[in-house]
From TrEMBL:
The chain crosses the membrane at residues 166-186. It comes from the Bacteria. This is OmpR/PhoB-type domain-containing protein. Residues 134-153 are annotated as: Disordered. Keywords: Membrane, Transmembrane, Transmembrane helix. Residues 137-146 have a biased composition (Polar residues).
Length: 449
């Protein structure tokens, strides 16, 4: 069984159990490689490998060149100068090293060997008459064969489609994140090796513990796609009723059927999956006490007792709306005028009353907010990581996972008794090639417990 990852608006993903290249053993090898420990933490290298192999297996080796790779995978401008920007060369070099590592370790018994010969980017598959043993990996000298020389058992369905160049750059992060989470769950005991590390952390100790569960809520990015498609935000009340999925009014030029189809899909963002992966990697986190929930499956009672981590703004995680009435920094997406702003309800003398995200300019300025609030009963804490875009949410996550920045900030705001107050932190960052660059703190607020 293969998985097809379909790119939809807002860089979201849908998983369909459909064949991508039939039963071609070369593609099966590629899938094993990207799911291996050697590759699973490097989504960029996985997307590069799959992009190159897909083109090669589709008989499009002539389309493989540095220029097209930079434009398709690394969001470089059309006709950019590869002699100045060497991002493709640097990633290809890392890819060659990682492939070498794979075939000398977990892939030592593969019957097909895959390399990217230096001087080009076209994959080369080498057939072996029997599995390559680790002891033989250094002395074997198999005869290489080209892509065309190996048996091709693909189905007649065409491989390439309109979105294929775009989706490999983002979709592999879904495979990597999901596979890595599964790996961590299976090997949960290894993460318990330093149980005191979480207990000593001023923030994570409030959210994770062995005596309670922690709920992590991934955003409904299918909802944000629908909101962009219809030009209308969906309130929490509408989200709970589900009426928005059957009464969507699309913009001129489309149909209600298309809007309803988008509304029915269950998507989440790559950024959210990356955050979940990092949460599972925190040393000492009791993994068996963590629950991952899709925003659409949440209910109000889930926010009453245990600690919760909400990922994304109210646009994709409407549950954030429950806490916004007590927050100073609130996001507003004006679909009609294509503006995403952060409202500063009570600005200080040196602050702006509103900060507008730069969605179309060359800088692509984005904002992120980190908020620690009480849950609905006041019996636990709710951590909100949100942004004016996926890059904005990423900037918020980068801050909380970077102790060199987080801990000094928490030390600054801690109360006289040493505990943390509730707080909100506003960050500004730039969207660089779909990811957040280094952020700066614009402002923060605290509220005593």
């Amino acid at each position: 069984m293969y998985l097809r990852l379909r790119l939809m608006p807002e860089h979201t993903l849908q998983v369909d159990p459909e064949p991508v290249v039939g039963s071609d053993p070369r593609w099966e090898l590629v899938e094993r490689i990207v799911a291996s420990p050697s590759f699973i933490r490097s989504p960029r290298l996985c997307s590069l490998l799959m992009h190159l192999c897909e083109l090669a297996l589709a008989g499009r080796s002539d389309d493989i060149n540095e220029q097209s790779i930079g434009e398709a995978l690394f969001e470089r401008a059309r006709n950019y100068d590869p002699s100045i920007d060497g991002i493709v060369r640097s990633h290809a070099s890392r890819l060659r090293q990682r492939l070498e590592q794979y075939f000398s370790e977990e892939g030592a018994h593969e019957t097909i060997r895959l390399t990217i010969p230096k001087g080009g980017y076209t994959p080369l598959f080498e057939a072996h008459s029997r599995p390559l043993l680790r002891s033989e990996s250094a002395v074997s000298s198999p005869q290489p064969t080209s892509v065309e020389d190996l048996p091709d058992t693909r189905t007649s369905a065409p491989v390439a489609n309109t979105y294929r160049h775009l989706f490999w750059a983002t979709s592999i992060a879904l495979i990597a994140a999901c596979s890595f989470i599964g790996f961590l769950l299976v090997h949960a005991h290894s993460a318990q090796s330093s149980p005191g590390s979480v207990a000593k952390h001023p923030l994570w100790s409030m959210l994770f513990g062995t005596d309670h569960s922690t709920l992590i809520v991934a955003s409904d990015t299918g909802l944000t796609s629908l909101e962009a498609f219809t030009g209308k935000n969906v309130s929490l009340a509408e989200y709970l009723s589900g009426d928005y999925r059957t009464h969507a009014t699309p913009l001129t030029g489309t149909t209600p059927e298309i809007a309803e189809k988008i509304a029915s899909r269950r998507y989440t963002s790559i950024v959210d999956l990356d955050i979940v992966t990092k949460l599972y990697q925190i040393p000492g986190v009791p993994i068996n006490r963590m629950q991952l929930r899709y925003a659409r499956d949440l209910r109000p009672n889930d926010l009453k007792d245990e600690p919760v981590i909400l990922l994304g703004s109210a646009e994709g995680t409407p549950w954030v709306e429950l806490f916004e009435d007590k927050m100073n920094f609130v996001f507003v997406h004006d679909h009609q005028n294509h503006r995403f702003v952060v409202l500063n309800r009570l600005p200080h003398s040196n602050e702006q009353a509103r900060y507008e995200a730069d969605l179309n300019g060359p800088v692509h300025r984005v904002y992120g907010v980190i908020a620690l609030r009480p849950n609905m009963k006041g019996s636990g804490d709710v951590l909100v990581l949100e942004g004016t875009s996926m890059a904005g949410t990423e900037s918020a996550a980068d801050f909380v996972f970077d102790d060199s920045r987080l801990l000094p900030f928490l030390a600054t705001i801690k109360q006289n008794n040493g505990s943390l107050p509730y707080f909100e932190l506003l960050l500004q960052s730039n969207n660089m090639n779909g990811s957040a660059s280094g952020s700066e703190i614009l402002s923060y607020r605290t509220t005593a417990r």
